[in-house]
Amino acid sequence: MGRSSGQGRVKIVCVGNRFRRDDGAAHRVADLLEPEPGVEVVRAQAPVEILNHVSSDIDTLIVVDAMERISEPGRIHRLNSVTLLSDKSPWRSTHTMTLPEVIRLLESLGAKPSEIIIFGIEGESFEPGVGLSESVERSCAVVASEIKKILGIGVGPGSPP
After folding, report:
1. Residue 3 forms part of a structural domain
2. Along the 161 residues of the chain, how does pLDDT read in single tens digits?
């Protein structure tokens, strides 16, 4: 069962490949979120796997994925499904079926959650190997922190600002 953010059930899908350097960014975010009680994190290798994890009881879907470099490594793009599907979307992917294509398919199947939040982290290197570049590692911590805020983790009386 996924954590409720006040709006309903939330599921987090982290997409990537740890063995292609910065493509593993989302899995690093998953590492940072999994210790939190009640947080439902799914690890996927490709966006198409999202289709296996969306169900009618999910109100908010959060997707984290590395994206090809378009400006600077580590830059974080926070998008919703409308922005992702627009002509102005910066999304560039190395996946065969891209995240925008998966979101369109969810829409056409009538299975799209009411809210979709996408975090794209620009990578520096997608070559075979392990380990993230410094800027991407820092961005993973920022994204994990933003997701915790969305979920209301660490927010409230007595929690650090």
Report:
1. no
2. 354 445 578 999 999 999 999 999 999 999 999 999 989 999 999 988 998 888 888 899 999 999 887 889 999 999 887 777 666 655 555 556 778 888 888 888 888 898 999 999 999 999 999 999 999 999 999 999 999 999 998 755 544 44
4 within some domain: no
CATH assignment of the domain containing 115? 3.40.50.1450
Number of structural domains (the chain) is 1
| Tokens (6 digits) for 134 | 């410094």
Q: What is the pTM of this model?
A: 0.83
Q: What is the residue type of 44? A: A
User: What are the DSSP E strand ranges found in 9-155?
Assistant: 9-15, 41-44, 58-67, 76-80, 115-122
Which 3 state secondary structure label does DSSP give 64?
strand
- Residue 1 included in any domain: no
Domain that holds residue 76: 9-151
Query: For residue 156, is it within any domain?
Result: no
Distance separating alpha carbons of residues 21 and 80, to the nearest angstrom: 26
SS3 (DSSP) at 107: helix
